[in-house]
Every structure is written in structure tokens, then in C-alpha cells.
Amino acid sequence: MDEQRAAGDEQQDGAAEAAPSEREPEIVDAEVVADDDAAAEVETDLDALLAERTRERDEHLELAQRARADFENYRRRVKVEVAEAEQRGRAALARSVLPALDNLERALVAAGVDPSGRGGDGEAPSEEVSARDALAEGVALVYRELSAALERTGVVAFDPVGERFDPSEHEAIATSAADGVESGTVIETLERGYRVDSQVIRPARVVVSG
Q1: SS3 state of residue 201
Q2: What is the CATH superfamily name and number for domain 155-210?
Q3: What is the mean pLDDT of each run of 10 residues along the chain (210 residues)?
């Protein structure tokens, strides 16, 4: 019996030794902590890299938009300059031709031929045409073709009879009294004026009512 009691005491002592009085601390794996820190550092680096690339993208986009706007402005400026140069060229050509055109017109008027070709009674010309008439008609054809060529390039003549005198478009050669006409009105055109588009390249020489 004593042996049984002694055996029971040994079993109790062993159980007491096997059950710790306090809970043992949790063991943390150092390699796992290191991996977590490394992952966090990599994520931080990726965020910084993404922010840097986003900033660079925005800068490049801004530069591209600015370059495009500069190019559009340049293209519009060149277009305007080309149009102005073309207009100056047409105006210079017209100015060099207009004196000859004026002389042709005077010659036709002196010969009794309507330079515009709108005159006449509509009858067919006679088979017996004098050399003078033939010459006058030939000059008239040259005059009309030259006038038409100028019109195709935008050079247009204007006759301001009946309009108010405008010093920006008319050159007053003389004044004359005219019954029933308001003072300052163009009553006669001595030389027609010419425009290229909206630009007056030669003012009309006129007589103005006084």
C-alpha cells in the first residue's frame, strides 16, 4: 500500500513539473519580420517611382501641348503672311499694268469704241470694215482680255459716280457745281479706281460737286 501511495505521489510531482506555472513567450521568427520590412520598403520605393514617372509624364504632356500650340500659331502666322505677300504681289503687278490699261481705254474712247464692249446697237458688223475700225476693235479685244485677266487675280475696277467723296478711295482732281446734287458727291470719274480684294491700290480720280 505504501508502494502504491509512493507511486501516486511521483505521478503528481511529474504532473506538477509538466504544467508550467506561467505561459511561455511566443517565439517570433526573425526572417519573417525581415521579409515584411523588405516588402514595405519595396512598396514605398514603387510608390515613389510611380509618383516620379507620373510627374515626368505630366511634364512631357505639357511640353507636347505647348509645342502643338506654338506650331498652330506659327502655321496661322505663316498663312497670313503668305496671303499678305500674295496680295502685295498682285497689287504690284496691277500697278505696273494699270497705266497701259488706262492708255488703251483713252484710245478706245477717242476712237468712239466702248471699252467695256457693252456699246453698239446690236447689229452685225458690216463686211466692209475700215482699217481704223478693225484696229480699234483689236485694241478693244486686248483691253477686255487684260481687264478680265486682272479680275481673275482679284484686281477689280470701281467707278464711284454718285457716291459720297471718300478720301481713302477717291482723289479729287477738281470741283464743279451741279444742280440738284448734294455737295461732296462724285459727279464724274476721270480715271477709275482699282482694288485688290478690299485694299485700294489706286484711288479713283474724280470731279466732286462743290
Answers
A1: strand
A2: Head domain of nucleotide exchange factor GrpE (2.30.22.10)
A3: 53 50 52 61 78 88 90 92 89 90 88 72 52 82 90 92 94 90 93 91 93
